[in-house]
Design a protein that fits this description.
single chain; six-stranded antiparallel sheet; two-stranded parallel sheet
């Protein structure tokens, strides 16, 4: 599978933290893929989350390839135990995205658990990320 993702200019950025159980499960599932990308359907919101080694991006089902939010710069090395939350930066590309962050953070663990229950992760996948064209 190949998905090309685009970003509008960044609107805002803020520090956040992800519960340890969510971070740990996401990276456990990522380690089981051969492609280096984990595609996580969040059906309750009609979003697709894509996790790679650098970030977790969220695509709205209506806008398809445009990133609404990216969770970047995860810092698991700063925690004292595997049960501590993991700090990250939430980067917003859409005006409504800041309001979605809390719901995405609540729905992501459910989607990860559904994905883990399926148990299979094969196939070739690659995400190509491009910046949005500059309008000038």
């Amino acid at each position: 599978m190949e998905i090309t993702c685009y970003r509008n200019p960044e609107i805002a950025r803020e520090p956040r933290s992800l519960p340890a159980a969510t971070y740990n499960l996401a990276h456990t599932l990522l380690s089981r893929t051969s492609s280096g990308c984990l595609f996580i359907p969040i059906r309750a919101m009609q979003y697709l989350a894509i996790l790679d080694a650098e970030e977790l991006v969220f695509l709205d089902g209506e806008r398809k390839c445009w990133i609404d939010i990216a969770w970047r710069n995860f810092r698991p090395q700063q925690r004292n135990s595997l049960d501590d939350p993991v700090a990250y930066e939430a980067v917003y590309y859409q005006p409504s995205a800041a309001g979605l962050r809390a719901r995405l953070q609540a729905e992501l663990p459910r989607a990860l658990n559904e994905l883990a229950a399926k148990g299979r992760f094969d196939g070739v996948a690659r995400v190509i990320k491009f910046a949005a064209p500059q309008h000038g």
